[in-house]
Sequence to fold (564 residues):
Amino acid sequence: MTSSKALLQVKGLGRHFGPRLAVADVNLHVTRGEVLGLLGLNGAGKTTTLRMICGTLAPSQGSICIDGVDLMEQPARARQSLGYLPETPPLTQDTSVREFLRFAAMLRRVPSSLQHDAVARVLSRCGLADVAGRLIRHLSKGYQQRVGIAQAIVHEPALVVLDEPTVGLDPRQVVDIRRLIDALRQDHAVIFSSHILPEVQALCDRVVILHHGRQVYIGEPTDDDTELRYQLRLQNPPDPGALQALAGVESVRQLEPMLFELVLADDAAALDEILAAAVAAGWQPRELGRCRRTLEQVFLSLTAGEAAA
Amino acid sequence: MMALRLAWRELRLIARGPAFWLLLGLVQAFAAWWYLLLLEQYRSHYEPLVVRVNSPMGVNDLVVLPFYGSVLLLGALLLGAAMLAMRLLADERRSGSLQLLLSSPISMTQLAAGKYLAALGCLALLALPWILLPWTLAFGTELDFARLLSAGLGVLLLVAALAAIALYASSVTAQPATAAALTVAIAVALMGLNAGVEAVAGGDDAIADYLAMLSHYEPLVQGLIRSSDIIYFALLVLAFVGFTIRQLDSLRTQR
Fold:
């Protein structure tokens, strides 16, 4: 049940806290059936961005449309299409799970006559039926997180926003929550933040990397193949300048005495040229292969300054 | 409608904890003790004196008036208001559950109104023993019912103002203890403003007199219902609920 209609459209989003720039020029769009991951180091602006999308923080600039409704112009209507799980689940500890979800449904303006069914459906969907009558304070962190997700989807919103939904959970609970998020994509658009790369790769259709509040990467969470990057091993290597001089070679980097990394402009023509030149000049080529950067390498290179610090 | 639903839920949550019931029990015990003390004092001391000098004064002046004017009543209501301030919004902010309310399709006016109505209901329930106890005198003597109604109205208006102050103090901070302290500070400052100014300036000050809460409460206890006093309390409530809405809005626009 997918549609290309953007359920979330964010343009030029920015936020200042006094003189400090927290988020600048973030542009996002998410469609139904899609899971968008927001990656970044701590303090990169993930939570600030999500809070602005959910209307709990006003942006300094930019626009946010949720299911075609402008969040600034019609905040109440836009928020009806939205379910939000903040970093700390917004739970009322002294209520039972069922009572809390009923309250969440009421807040999200689910009609009274439909609230009972909505709560029953979400209890079953989130695996909470067995603990529906228990006080939230008596549940484990994993179950509390499930209740947090349940309150975000009890009104069947078009867009579900989850801020670090697996933080602080044990591996078993992480797997359970990931399964739940994966199941959500069938009926909703999901945007969630994390700094756990395997999690993002496992769940997301697209990834946005934020660094120092700026959007530095947007793409698929699979390996980055936008650049034509090759590794060439030569038994009798020349000076790197000789490789650089070949047609179609954009840059050369010597990784080891006999190993070079080449970035090509056009692999079809340049590969033939390189191999022909290597044989003719007696460089004795032994290995030539395409190398793709993993998401982890992309993430680390984009956030290198922070890592070094 | 949404405000009423929010208020009802808040009342149920407050009623679920032990703090409210403990306070209600304490307030009832204070009220009963003070009431019996005044009654006993009247019976053994004032009544023979009143008869001897043929004074027009009676229980209405010597029991009802000091009962409603008691510092115990003010203390109990202050305690209740401080307890409410600790949970209304400050606790929601501290626990993070305010995010649920802020991201829901409700306005800040509905949120503030719902929380205010819950606070009003709680404090009114605390004040109920004080309002009702003097009516039991009707079994043994002739009461000035108009005066009792006026005093009851005074207590309710005081309760309404304290609930609004507690709500505002609760919206200012995420620390429940700070919210409680702020409630007491604002309420005490408003109650004794004229006395403080008089002590410093050495004379009456018309502005301080008008702003002081007790200058508008005391006439009501004495049986004098004036529109200016009712307007004063209404303005106080509107101002503090308005400040709360503004404060909640500022959480979104924080700089």
Notes: Chain B has one domain: 2-252. DSSP finds 13 helices and no strands in chain B.
